[in-house]
Amino acid sequence: MTKTFAVTRRHVVAAAAALGLAAGTALPAAAQDPIKIGLIASLSGPSAKSGEAITRGILLAMDEINAEGGVLGRPLELVARDDENNPGKGITAARELINREGAVVIFGGLQTPVSLALVPYINQTKVPFMGPWAAGTPITKNGAAENYMFRVSAVDEMVDVALVERAATLHGATKPGLVLINNPWGESNEKGIMAALEAKGMENAGVETIEANDVDVVPQLTRLKDAGADALFLVANVGPSAQVMKSLERMGWDVPVVSHWGPAGGRFSELGGPRAKDVEMIQTFTFSGNDSPKAAATLEALKKKFPEIQSAADVTPAVGIANAYDAMHLTALAIENAGSTDGPAIRQGFYDIDSYEGLIKTYETPFTPEDQDALGPEDYVFTRFIDGEIIPID
After folding, report:
1. How many angstroms separate the CA atoms of 241 and 243, rounded?
2. Which of 77, 221, 324, 357 has the fewest beta carbons under 10 Å from its own?
3. Each residue of 260-298: pLDDT tens digit?
4. Which residues belong to the signal peptide in this entry (predicted)?
């Protein structure tokens, strides 16, 4: 799937009917020679709502940037490819966006396996990558001498510390179990959770893996229950997370579930059954319960641009919008700092950002060569689904 999004100060973007994404239109004469930003994300399938949220966040930021004259006097244009949650298709998309479309920065999408597959290619081509979702620790901490992978999102090793802390302090867990998706994202979190448990001197009841297409995970959960698990750490996206909660319901096992943010990426409250509301998920941002003037203004702008959005409940997952919105503004600042669209110059431009008052927070020197993640544990909040809306909880 190929989509082109052209955004100018005349707001020539129209929302496409299928996903509420923007479809490209012809640029007016005064706005020729745009700076192209690529996006590789899940724009179809079970994670499409998250791909939609990321796209909306980028487009909203582009509207604001272009209304102020663009970047280096040129408008920004978004060109997107659907990776269909497939690392091979993600690499193909990156090649197309860089070599055929001339994208100067690539925004990654949702899946850690896709983003990890892109690391060698991105660092080889020296076209900066910006991640607004995938949380795998090695995406940015990849050991490259010249690292072009940046992120405005959660980071597994930091999330895992927060998950363990919550299970121990709020639920009194002493022997939690792990339920992890069987892919590099699950592996990243297994390392992080085990390290966090060890740091607190805690045991674990075992590690069980699940597949994306599993429809019954009672056997895995039964093994954890028999091993004495008093809480569960859940790391999976919408589909398998929903199966975990339905399996718990069938078992009648009322155990606390402390989760990474995967369930937030789609129709989890609908698919997960009665127990979906019990999952405590980490997030980096919510519109609900947020009294920030910037949050209120951004929500109003979203309603205006996307008429199907009527309230905060309609922007689930808000993290996709907020992370992508802030990431696009930071990317524009990096290009301005670079004074060109040359990849190495833009990379340095990220390091040269002093501060930016964003939607999630005010960023102060958000990127350095030693740390290319703009968000940290202080930016995390725990939430749950209540009547289909992601609500902050204590």
Report:
1. 5
2. 357
3. 998 987 778 888 999 999 999 999 999 988 999 999 999
4. 1-31
